[in-house]
Amino acid sequence: MKKPDQEQVWDNIAEEWHEFKTNPSENATNFIDNSKGKILDFGSGSGRNLLKVKKTKDKEIYLVDFSQKMLDFALERAKKLKLKINITKSNLEKIPFKNNFFDATICVAAIHCIPGRKQRENSFKEIYRTLKKGAKADIEVWDKNSERFKKASKQKFINWRDKGKRFYYLYEEQELRKLLEKIGFKIIKKIPHKANLIFIIEK
User: From 142's CA, which of 77, 153, 170, 173 has a CA 20 to 30 Å away?
Assistant: First the structure.
């Protein structure tokens, strides 16, 4: 059976996703508000994590996603919010930015949507490569050991209505810690959450 093309799936569900997913991560909002300079939303989707950002004068916000339709909705959203953003369509395994370019990065519910262990690891490596030395990132993925996902398969394709099957991979805490440390990140803290693993990490 042929695996669904994930870029096409996310393009297909973009409009409904944009309408339904309107609650930003509280932690990502705080992280952006407390950061300055060039800030990357890595795997941004339609930009929901910009919805409650208050402080924007001292920062440039960059959104990267492989779904052009998601990015189009992000531009619409930013216009309504009167936010200036930069968008880039790119696969997360290799993004078109120089080494040490960003002052901060958020990655919320994105990397666990990438099929393939090596592909996910390469995406984390791109966060590391493009962050400045000493810069921090907010990483948020679904937690395999949460009540919500305890009985779920570790990886699966799931339907979004009739629009296509989207992929997910569920990380366990120690698994994610080891991967981040292997890449070179220092884990600053884990933020408690009932369904997600949330780490603040530093290059």
Answer: 77
